[in-house]
Each structure stands twice: as structure tokens, then as C-alpha cells.
């Protein structure tokens, strides 16, 4: 399994009746497949997505785009940002449980995305009470929740030592089973002998649930291929985008730590020789300041002589 997420996806509360349990959601899944980036083979430049008119083939600026919904073939209703915003569901930051149903009654095709539900410090006792009650009754909470401006149907059920929230598909998003694709129950029905042999085969292959024994072979082979090519030096450098040019790296690898050690050990560090330019500037400054320095020196000497008192004369006996 992937490492546990420490980033809070959503904060709010579980609400049903007069019960209010502060909780936070954490993602229960992780996307681990390598992501491909589009690159121009000729120039080795990254390729981005660009909005292009399908009629003219020209790029369309972002501020010129509007959103429309097709109502008939080729007929669209255009909606403004304000109109779309007015239809967004109001976020209450609560998982509003509207009913409790048998956990096994929800068909698997409705399940979409799971989240772990963790309690806030203030709601730990109520959280454990709800978890244990759902376990004893075999029930799951059927709720509505708004996440990232989108309203979801969800079910809340015990999982391991806590609770999990499963986002569900709405009823109109789940298709009926294609009856026309089903085999004819009369002509294709299995015999009792075939059923017993199939049951024996299933029992022989029975095992405990252990998802860690299975791996995404495509991801594994792709990672091995990437690592092998990178180790062999088969790595391409992308060209920087305009305005993002950087200096080409030097062929010589510089060890900064070693340079600092050398600098500290070098006697030239304490009394570094001045450059020709700095020596010339210093000499010119001394030449300009020489008369002022001589005047100041003579004035200081005269002042110091005036401040010295003469020694007292001895009286004759």
C-alpha cells in the first residue's frame, strides 16, 4: 500500500439529528503511474495545451472563451460565469447524513472515490460511538457533502479502526445492465455436473484477500525501462522556455565544500592582494587628501604643544 496521506483534503463535521462530530478527510488513494509529458522531438521543447478553434485552426485567447451546454444538435445555451456561480451548491462544511441503510445494499457500481474520516479532538467520543454503532447494526450512513464546490452523494461506513467516506455516483450516472448482451438462460444454462466441477475449482483456488501480492505490470516495466535508460546516460535535456534561459553548466564539477576549505587554509584570505584598479583608486584618494592630512597634522601638533605646561622654575637659595 502507498504511504498514508498527511494532507487534509476537507474539514467539517458529520451531522445527523442533533449529533455534530467535527472531522477531517484524508485521501485514501494515490496515483502512482508515471506521467508522460509531451515533448517536441525536433527541438526538445515542452509542448503545452493550447485552445484552438476547430473551425479556423487559430488559437483563442482565454478571455474570449465562454461556456455553453448543447441542448440540441448544434444548438448551445451560453452561460456566464455569474450564472454558473449562482447554480453552485452552498457549502455547509458538513457530511449531512439523511438515512442509514444496510451497508451491503449499495451496489459496487455506485462506489467512486474513498476518503478516510478522522475525528477532531473535540469529537473523538462521538466519533467512536458512531463507528461502533454502525459496526453493530451493519448500517452505513447515506449522506450529501460538498467538496470543492461539487455536491456528492456519499456513504459513511466503518473501515479498519475508523470511518471511511465513499463518494457515490448519482442514480442517473449509472447505466442499466445491457439486457441484450446477456446469454439465453434456456440454451446456455449450465448442468448440475458442470456446476459441481466449477465449485470445486473455485474452492481449490480460494485464498485470503491480499492486494499486495498483485502489481501493475505496466507501471513496473515502465519504471525499470526508465531507470535502465537513465543509468545508461540516455537522458535528454529540455530546452528552456523564452525568458527562462539559464547559463550552460560547466564541464568541470566544482566541489563547493573543498573550495571553502582551501579558502580558509590559504594565507591570502587574511590579506588578499588588491587589484590594480583598487590600488589606483586608493593612490588617487591619498593624493587628493594629502594637503588636508598635512594641514590637520600641523594643527594637531601646534595644539598639542600649546597644551603642554612649562616646568616650574626653581627658586634660588
UniProtKB/TrEMBL annotation:
Entry's transmembrane regions: none
Comp. bias regions, Low complexity: 267-307
Keywords: DNA damage, DNA recombination, DNA repair, DNA-binding
Chain intervals for the UniProt region annotation (Disordered): 265-317
Residue span(s) of domain Ku: 57-185
Tagged with keyword DNA repair: yes
SUPFAM superfamilies per UniProt: SPOC domain-like
Pfam families referenced in this protein's UniProt entry, alphabetically: Ku (PF02735)
Quaternary data: Homodimer. Interacts with LigD.
Function in brief: With LigD forms a non-homologous end joining (NHEJ) DNA repair enzyme, which repairs dsDNA breaks with reduced fidelity. Binds linear dsDNA with 5'- and 3'- overhangs but not closed circular dsDNA nor ssDNA. Recruits and stimulates the ligase activity of LigD.
Database matches in HAMAP family: Prokaryotic_Ku (MF_01875)
UniProt similarity note: Belongs to the prokaryotic Ku family.
Protein name: Non-homologous end joining protein Ku
Organism lineage: Bacteria, Pseudomonadati, Pseudomonadota, Betaproteobacteria, Burkholderiales
Amino acid at each position: 500500500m502507498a504511504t498514508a496521506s498527511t494532507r487534509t483534503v476537507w474539514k467539517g463535521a458529520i451531522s445527523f439529528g442533533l449529533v455534530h462530530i467535527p472531522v477531517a478527510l484524508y485521501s485514501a488513494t494515490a496515483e502512482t503511474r508515471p506521467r508522460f509529458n509531451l515533448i517536441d522531438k525536433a527541438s526538445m521543447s515542452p509542448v503545452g495545451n493550447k485552445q484552438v478553434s476547430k473551425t479556423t485552426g487559430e488559437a483563442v485567447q482565454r478571455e474570449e472563451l465562454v461556456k455553453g451546454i448543447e441542448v440540441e444538435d448544434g444548438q448551445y445555451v451560453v452561460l456566464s460565469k455569474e450564472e454558473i456561480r449562482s447554480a453552485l451548491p452552498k457549502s455547509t462544511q458538513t457530511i449531512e447524513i439523511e438515512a442509514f441503510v444496510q451497508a451491503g445494499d449499495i451496489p459496487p457500481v455506485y462506489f467512486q472515490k474513498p476518503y478516510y474520516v478522522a475525528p477532531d479532538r473535540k469529537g473523538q467520543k462521538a466519533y467512536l460511538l458512531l463507528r461502533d454503532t454502525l459496526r453493530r447494526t451493519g448500517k452505513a450512513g447515506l449522506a450529501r457533502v460538498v467538496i470543492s464546490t461539487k455536491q456528492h452523494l456519499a456513504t459513511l461506513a466503518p473501515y479498519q479502526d475508523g470511518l471511511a467516506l465513499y463518494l457515490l455516483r448519482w442514480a442517473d450516472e449509472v447505466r442499466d445492465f445491457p439486457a441484450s448482451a446477456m446469454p439465453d438462460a434456456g440454451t446456455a444454462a449450465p448442468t448440475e455436473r458442470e456446476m459441481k466441477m466449477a465449485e470445486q475449482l473455485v474452492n481449490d483456488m480460494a485464498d485470503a484477500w491480499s492486494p499486495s501480492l498483485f502489481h501493475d505490470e505496466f507501471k513496473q516495466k515502465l519504471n525499470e525501462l526508465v531507470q535502465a535508460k537513465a543509468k545508461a546516460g540516455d537522458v535528454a535535456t529540455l530546452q528552456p522556455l523564452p525568458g527562462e534561459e539559464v547559463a550552460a553548466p560547466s564541464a568541470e564539477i566544482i566541489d563547493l565544500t573543498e573550495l571553502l576549505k582551501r579558502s580558509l587554509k590559504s594565507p591570502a584570505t587574511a590579506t588578499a592582494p588588491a587589484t590594480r584598479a583598487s590600488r589606483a583608486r586608493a593612490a588617487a584618494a591619498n593624493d587628493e587628501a594629502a594637503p588636508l592630512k598635512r594641514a590637520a597634522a600641523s594643527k594637531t601638533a601646534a595644539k598639542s604643544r600649546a597644551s603642554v605646561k612649562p616646568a616650574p622654575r626653581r627658586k634660588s637659595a
